[in-house]
Amino acid sequence: MSSEEQRARWDLKYEQGLPSLTELDPFFISAYERFVGPEFPQAGRALDLAGGLGRHALWLAGRSWQVTVVDVSEVAIAKLSQVAHELSLKLELLVGDASEYRFEPVRFDLIVLFYHLDRTLFSKILSALTPGGLLICKMSLRWTSVGRSTVGVDPLHRDELPSLVPDLHVLHHRERPVGDRGVVEFVGRK
What are the residue ranges of helices labelled H in 87-154? Predict the structure, then answer.
């Protein structure tokens, strides 16, 4: 799928206003409380890649984090900008494909990546994390060798995610079945 087709697909989803795209993910909250809060009690700088409507970014900004959000959808970024303004929260918002984002070395204390798989991003994520910085990641994965894929041509395989971030100390890694696919929840520290 081309970048323009992806953008159009996501713009439509965000225009429809699906509730699941605005609700905080329970894993994100538990990972924050267990790992991020204790490590960064004074907050810090965060990057929400493919952040959509900003469900996690808004929550972080409300806790004094300086948050950058990158998403391919202009609709999502426009809606997020409006909500941030209404809540008097400051976010750096960028429209663009996560793969085209220019990662600055050693910039972020926290990087959030939910349900966006691009294997080329992981080395860039590692370079952008500060020493002690954390990655919170949740993605779909192929649970069995048969069956249809719901996440693209080449989804994550079981136990693949830790191999994509070999320089991170794994704090949490859980894979479980969900319907005809699986999900991986991951927290790693640089």
Answer: 121-128
Strand runs (DSSP E) across the chain, as ranges? Answer: 45-49, 66-71, 91-95, 108-114, 129-141, 169-178, 181-189
- Global pTM? 0.90
Q: What gap in Å lies between CA 44 and CA 60, rounded to an integer? A: 10
- Burial (CB count within 10 angstroms: exposed 0-12, middle 13-18, buried 19+), residue 2: exposed
Cα–chain-centroid distance for residue 111? 7
**What span, in angstroms and rounded, lies between the C-alpha atoms of 10 and 76?**
8
**Sequence-separated (6 or more) residues with CB below 8 Å from residue 51:** 57, 69, 70, 71, 76, 80, 112
Domains and CATH numbers, the chain: 3-18+26-189 (3.40.50.150)
Q: Give 147-163 pLDDT, tens digit per residue.
A: 444 444 578 999 999 99
Q: Which two tokens stand for residue 132?
A: 């002690």
Burial grade of 172 (CB within 10 A; 0-12, 13-18, 19 or more): middle
